Amino acid sequence: MAKQTEGRRTSAVYARYIAHSEQSSYIEIPFEMPELVEEVHVRYTVESHGGEDAKAVIDLGVRDGARVRGWSGGARREFRIGPDKATPGYLPGPLEPGEWAVLHNAYKVPEEGCTVTVEVTFSQRAPRWLKGDLHTHSVHSDGAYTLEENAAIMESLGCDFIAMTDHNTSSQNLAYPRQTSVLMIPGTEFTTNFGHANFIGATDPMHDFRVSDMSGVREKFRIARERGARTVLNHPHCDYCPWEWDFAVDHDWVEVWNGPWTERNGRALAWWQEQLASGRRLVAVGGSDVHRPDPYVKHAMPCVWVRAEEKTVREVLSGIDRGHVVITYAPDGPFVRMQCGDYGVGDAVPYGNPGREVLMQFEDLLAGDLVRVYSERGVELEAAAPLDGEWELTADGEERLFLRTEVWRYFEQAGDRRLAAMTNPIYFDSREEEE
């Protein structure tokens, strides 16, 4: 059971002989961009004809159906383009299907000519689990890490994304490092005297953070959402900065797990369970809230796993919106899948679906880890893992609103049992919802 499913890759190879008479001309090698491509990778080689003294110089670039998307001259032998990231000199953005072309400038061609061989590789979109941190800070507010340091640490952990949520500022979203494999998700922590909230996915979600009453808070949430942000209530039951505004504020997600597991997180988890039991379908997320080097508060602890169609800001946020979220205490923590036929974590099983048995598949368990399955009625099932590694359980969702799973582990350093993993629910539609 692999958490990460690599997208399907296909390649096409083109060879083009360039005659000496074509020197100083621009040459196109057309190729067809398929549908649902997440990244295109182009590389080329040049074979000069005419002996050791003959050397061709052929420049490189690319166009899509509307414009030139990049040019590197003779500086590069390959490039990549994706929706959010691209090799320097190339523009990220949509990879629209249709005719594209590799561009060459035949700068210098030997008398006997040369042959250019181009390989174009397409990485197709494919659902997989991506992992990262949705709550971090940097030198752009009260953190000690630079953005480059944050990205490097996440990269070293094998993580896929990080949300930059500095307090009441958006400058970090204009300065993120581009030469990293980690997807940088823009964000801001809306920080007030009576509670904090993350606005995630918008570069500049608000022009002024100052509020004095609930109407002002609602207005900030409204503006942030209009600008494309998801709104998250942060550590709502914290001992020091809980959410003391009205909980009826229009929010998308709730942060039930902030930093190391403590009682404040337990209170947030219990509140979320109450919301689910009332029939509300509210997505739970987590975040490290890391500010500086600390023996306990560390990047991607907890780690948020999102099942997404591709590694882009849009698709990661969309995956969270759909509730396709599992949270583990660390990037290498135990992982849980839940499946009811074709439906998984965050999905709603239609009323007429035959059978409501949910299969739970666990990875990276330790013998003795305690598994609990919850519905609106409370704990439906509790069992201890018999061995290290993988394990499976089933639970019946008949006449239930939802089922969700927790894994509790004894941590010697803490001296007690703490949450090691949790899922968002699988929901079950009623006849009334179907109608």
Automatic annotation (TrEMBL):
Q: Which InterPro entries match?
A: PHP_domain, Pol/His_phosphatase_N, Pol/histidinol_Pase-like
> Which SMART domains does UniProt cross-reference here?
POLIIIAc
- Gene3D superfamilies (UniProt xref): Metal-dependent hydrolases
**Which molecular function GO terms apply here?**
5'-3' DNA exonuclease activity; 5'-3' RNA exonuclease activity
Domain Polymerase/histidinol phosphatase N-terminal, by residue range, is 132-194
- Name of the protein in question: CehA/McbA family metallohydrolase
Species, as recorded? Paenibacillus arenilitoris
Q: What is the lineage of its organism?
A: Bacteria, Bacillati, Bacillota, Bacilli, Bacillales
